[in-house]
Q: What sequence folds into this?
């Protein structure tokens, strides 16, 4: 069973078309990395899933039922843009309010539990407005986790988090999928972080789904390359460009040779031309580079 | 395997929504400020008008002298007598007939609008409506909570009027209205809150986070009904007035509540 199934979703904001026939399939129990440029339609899709805005057309199903089904929607946790908290309330009161909203019977224990999960138990009495951006994001996550949701929709949840916060977030998301069987849809521009946890990906552009794939499929389609450093980088680059179809210099100062089957062959070729290789390694392009490449191809 | 979802009955949904709204209403400083204002206003009006009674103001252009009239009776601030028994002073649109309990319906507009728009301004509406596909619970709950808040303000005004009357030494003689008339009047005024709250709620859910728009809109609409209040809930009210107010309240709550529900269902909630 798919947790989310979207077919031909359209959304117009006046003359502007935000979504133009988007299709999306999120299997149950997946951590679905939802990727796209700003204004590509990620947040609009997420808001439609949560019933916060209405689609102009198309079909949205959650766990096989229409997205307006009250019973399904009661089990959706959400963090879109900023956490929806009352600024003058304490963290504790905000969470207790959400617990009341969800009719959680043992609200206090549940709130303590989620506060522990996001490592915010010490800040329960703080007023929400006095919390830092990172703390607010964690509170938003805690709020979304209340009531053991079946589906979590998170829009840029790692924005404003420090390295430790990001690690905690990763642990939480993996934990809720493993232990609660929760399905997570998470959009983020920090692709390196997303890559560490996502089991499925959806890449969206211009209101359309460009590509959907599993982490394994991404892994298989990410090309390997040989990265090397020499004393004469310019000559090395021009020499290798003559032999290999794609040679690029990366930000770290390495020359990357894509589609090279044998690194030894490169070393020998350079040695024959009087260039000594000081460092060489084989690597794979990550999600970020794959995404950038995909975007470039589409342009 | 199909995921099982617990059935959420109306009772359960409404209970949780009411618990959120009552918790919010009674932890909101605005409610206590409003109730405090409602308590103080009649005291100030009664004491100050009593102090100024008899003072003469002169129109510099015509030289005409006007003698300031104060309240003759404490109950005048609660309502006016309808029909033939009323005196000219009571029916006239002077300052005293304007500064009475009917003013509260404007204050209630501020309370309801600020209460509802806070849901949207804080972003709490996202949490609320994500888990609530059915918006009727929200409308019912907000109407009931707005009614309770409004009723508290009216009761506070009534208490303030008693205190103000006692401080300024005004008569508590109920006259032709009688004690039952005053009680019925007060009940009618409380029930009339149910006519106004759905209006304020409708304007607020339409305006969403634009608090100023919801307040201005609510005041503008309620202005149209303002003149109806002394007629439908006079000081000499009977059970018929109470019934009329109750029927009007139910009609407005259901009618405009349904419209609010449609607005919430068909508009963007963020």
A:
């Amino acid at each position: 069973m798919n947790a989310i199934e979207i077919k031909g979703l359209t959304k117009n904001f006046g003359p502007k078309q935000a979504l133009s026939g988007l299709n999306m399939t999120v299997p149950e129990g997946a951590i679905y990395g939802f990727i796209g440029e700003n204004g590509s339609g990620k947040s609009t899709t997420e808001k439609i899933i949560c019933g916060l805005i209405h689609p102009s057309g198309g079909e949205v199903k959650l766990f096989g039922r229409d997205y307006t089904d009250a019973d399904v929607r009661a089990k959706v946790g959400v963090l879109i843009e900023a956490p929806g908290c009352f600024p003058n309330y304490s963290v504790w009161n905000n969470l207790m309010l959400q617990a009341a909203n969800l009719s959680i019977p043992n609200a206090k224990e549940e709130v303590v539990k989620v506060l522990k999960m996001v490592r915010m138990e010490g800040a329960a009495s703080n007023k929400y407005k006095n919390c830092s951006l990172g703390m607010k994001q964690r509170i938003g996550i805690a709020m979304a986790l209340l009531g053991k949701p079946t589906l979590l929709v998170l829009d840029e949840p790692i924005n404003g988090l420090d390295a430790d916060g990001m690690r905690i977030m990763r642990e939480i998301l993996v934990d809720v999928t493993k232990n609660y069987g929760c399905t997570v849809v998470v959009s983020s521009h920090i692709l390196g972080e997303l890559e560490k946890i996502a089991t499925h990906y959806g890449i969206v552009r211009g209101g359309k789904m460009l590509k959907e794939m599993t982490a394994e499929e991404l892994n298989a389609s990410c090309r390997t390359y040989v990265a090397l450093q020499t004393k004469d980088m310019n000559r090395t680059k021009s020499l290798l460009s003559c032999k290999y179809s794609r040679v690029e210099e990366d930000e770290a100062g390495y020359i990357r040779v894509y589609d090279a089957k044998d690194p030894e062959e490169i070393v020998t070729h350079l040695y024959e031309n009087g260039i000594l290789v000081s460092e060489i390694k084989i690597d794979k392009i990550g999600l970020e580079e794959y995404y950038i490449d995909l975007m470039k191809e589409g342009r | 395997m199909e995921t099982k979802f617990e059935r959420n009955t109306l009772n359960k949904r409404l209970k949780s929504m009411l618990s959120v709204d009552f918790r919010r209403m009674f932890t909101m400083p605005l409610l206590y400020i409003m109730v405090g204002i409602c308590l103080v206003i009649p005291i100030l009006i009664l004491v100050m008008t009593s102090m100024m009674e008899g003072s003469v103001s002169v129109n510099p252009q015509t030289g005409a002298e006007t003698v300031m009239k104060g309240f003759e009776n404490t109950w005048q601030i609660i309502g006016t007598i309808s029909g033939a028994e009323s005196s000219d002073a009571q029916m006239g649109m002077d300052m005293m007939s304007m500064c009475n309990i009917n003013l509260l319906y404007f204050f209630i507009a501020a309370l309801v609008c600020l209460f509802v728009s806070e849901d949207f301004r804080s972003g709490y509406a996202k949490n609320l409506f994500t888990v609530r596909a059915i918006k009727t619970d929200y409308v019912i709950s907000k109407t009931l909570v707005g009614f309770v808040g409004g009723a508290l303000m009216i009761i506070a005004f009534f208490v303030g009027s008693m205190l103000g009357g006692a401080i300024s030494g005004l008569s508590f003689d109920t006259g032709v209205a009688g004690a039952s008339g005053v009680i019925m009047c007060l009940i009618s005024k409380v029930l009339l809150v149910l006519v106004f709250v759905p209006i304020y709620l409708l304007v607020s859910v339409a305006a969403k986070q634009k608090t100023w728009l919801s307040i201005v809109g609510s005041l503008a609409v309620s202005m149209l009904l303002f003149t109806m209040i002394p007629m439908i809930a006079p000081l000499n009210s009977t059970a018929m007035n109470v019934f009329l107010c109750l029927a009007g309240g139910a009609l407005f709550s259901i009618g405009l509540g349904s419209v609010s529900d449609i607005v919430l269902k068909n508009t963007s909630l963020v």
